[in-house]
């Protein structure tokens, strides 16, 4: 478990991370999502002990780590692996040579290093590619090498900083699948920094939404998807949900399709998705329901439905209908698009 209390980091006049409190559970994949400039990279530099906060405390488990220096700092940093958007591989080395690097500098004997490199290549699905020059690898393969290199020294925590942002959607999915499997099989804690809600949906169990250096909200991904609280979260979901992404999602259940928008966004989860809530709504209230688009996404194994609909009728009837929907576990939001 990583714990941040009142952590701030300023650059001159600019407060990049502002009084952040965060509990990142261990042994899971935790997402931190934010727009460009929200402070994600700064936050990850602080948590990975590359920079010190101006104020506040960071703990790994019981140990306070933000104030460490010397060998104690090096010891804690050994527990952390990192992968990046642009892979940061050594172009002059082969795939295997990159993976061997951290083992070589930690003084592992050559035979052991060779054996471990083979194991790691297998682990990331690159068996037989150890001698390939980095320049001959695809983006997805390069990221697999970077993952293997990060895992070579058996870290407790793997930080992924926009690790799939440079990859196409299919490669992104395969890298996320790999990370999910590694997390499960190695009891790893993974923290994923991203600006893509798809990455949060497809890989993370919990998420923190960062906005202008502050935590806008945190929660289980399925809860955030079905009942977003902060305006910035809704904005992320609006860009992901209503039209294109539903059609592309791995579990499309498209009801209808329209580019004309709709007055309301309805979100619901679990059992509610299977119930004929809208037909009951239309029977119960004197309103017309026009579904513009809708679908069900798989969010960490939980079905989360999103529907864009018009609810037309007298204002008080529509207000009552909205209140009834909320009482049935359906979150109703005006569509600002
Ligand atoms: N080393 C630095 N010196 C000065 N300002 C910085 C530094 N690092 C970050 N900032 C500022 O802090 C704010 C947050 O930046 P940060 O890179 O953490 O955001 P981000 O969410 O990672 O954005 P992006 O996705 O664009 O990288 C920005 O206004 C940025 O200009």
Primary descriptors:
single chain, 337 residues, alpha/beta, six-stranded mixed β-sheet, four-stranded antiparallel β-sheet, 11 helices, 37% helix, 29% strand, elongated, binds adenosine-5'-triphosphate, ABC_transporter-like_ATP-bd, cell membrane, ATP-binding cassette domain-containing protein
* Percent of residues in helices: 25-40%
* Topology, number of strands: 14
Strand order in the largest sheet = 6-7-8-3-9-10
- Name the ligand types: adenosine-5'-triphosphate
Number of alpha- plus pi-helical segments: 11
Rounded mean pLDDT is 89
Order of helices and strands: EEEHEEHEHHHEHEHEEHHEHEEHE
* Structural Rg: 23 Å
Low-confidence stretches: 241-257
Shape: elongated
Task: Give the termini separation.
Answer: 39 Å
Secondary-structure-derived class: alpha/beta
Describe this structure in words.
With 337 residues, the protein is α/β, with parallel strands linked by helices. The protein contains eleven helices and 14 strands. A six-stranded mixed β-sheet has the order 6-7-8-3-9-10, with helices on both faces. A four-stranded antiparallel β-sheet has the order 2-1-4-5, covered by helices on one side. Strand 1 and strand 2 (14-24) form a beta hairpin. The model is unreliable at 241-257 (pLDDT under 50). Adenosine-5'-triphosphate (ATP) binds next to strand 2 and helix 1. Adenosine-5'-triphosphate binds next to strand 2 and helix 1. This is ATP-binding cassette domain-containing protein. InterPro entries: AAA+_ATPase, ABC_transporter-like_ATP-bd, ABC_transporter-like_CS, ACT-like_dom_sf, MetN_ABC_transporter-like, NIL_domain, P-loop_NTPase.
């Amino acid at each position: 478990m990583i714990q941040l209390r009142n952590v701030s980091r300023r650059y001159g006049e600019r407060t990049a991370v502002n009084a952040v409190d965060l509990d990142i559970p261990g042994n899971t994949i935790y997402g931190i999502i934010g727009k460009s400039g929200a402070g994600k990279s700064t936050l990850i530099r602080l948590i990975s002990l590359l920079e010190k906060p101006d104020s506040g405390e960071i703990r790994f488990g019981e140990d306070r780590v933000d104030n460490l220096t010397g060998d104690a700092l090096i010891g804690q940093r050994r527990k952390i692996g990192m992968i990046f958007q642009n892979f940061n591989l050594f172009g002059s080395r082969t795939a295997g040579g990159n993976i061997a690097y951290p083992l070589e500098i930690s003084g592992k004997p050559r035979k052991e290093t060779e054996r471990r490199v083979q194991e790691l290549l297998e682990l990331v699905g690159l068996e037989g590619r150890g001698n390939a020059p980095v320049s001959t690898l695809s983006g997805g393969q390069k990221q697999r090498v970077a993952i293997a290199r990060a895992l070579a020294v058996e870290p407790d925590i793997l930080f992924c900083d926009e690790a799939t942002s440079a990859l196409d959607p299919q490669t992104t999915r395969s890298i996320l699948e790999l990370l999910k499997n590694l997390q499960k099989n190695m009891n790893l804690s993974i923290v994923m920094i991203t600006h893509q809600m798809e990455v949060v949906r497809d890989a993370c169990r919990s998420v923190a939404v960062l906005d202008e250096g502050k935590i806008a909200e945190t929660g289980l991904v399925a809860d955030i998807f079905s009942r977003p609280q902060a305006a910035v979260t809704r904005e992320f979901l609006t860009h992901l949900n209503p039209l294109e992404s539903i059609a592309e999602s791995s579990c499309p259940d498209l009801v209808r399709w329209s580019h004309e928008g709709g007055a309301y966004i309805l979100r619901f989860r679990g059992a509610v998705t299977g119930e004929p809530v809208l037909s009951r709504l239309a029977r119960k209230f004197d309103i017309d329901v026009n579904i513009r688009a809708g679908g069900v996404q798989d969010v960490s194994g939980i079905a989360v439905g999103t529907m864009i609909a018009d609810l037309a009728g007298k204002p008080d009837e529509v207000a009552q209908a909205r209140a009834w929907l909320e009482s049935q576990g359906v979150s109703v939001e005006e569509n600002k698009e």
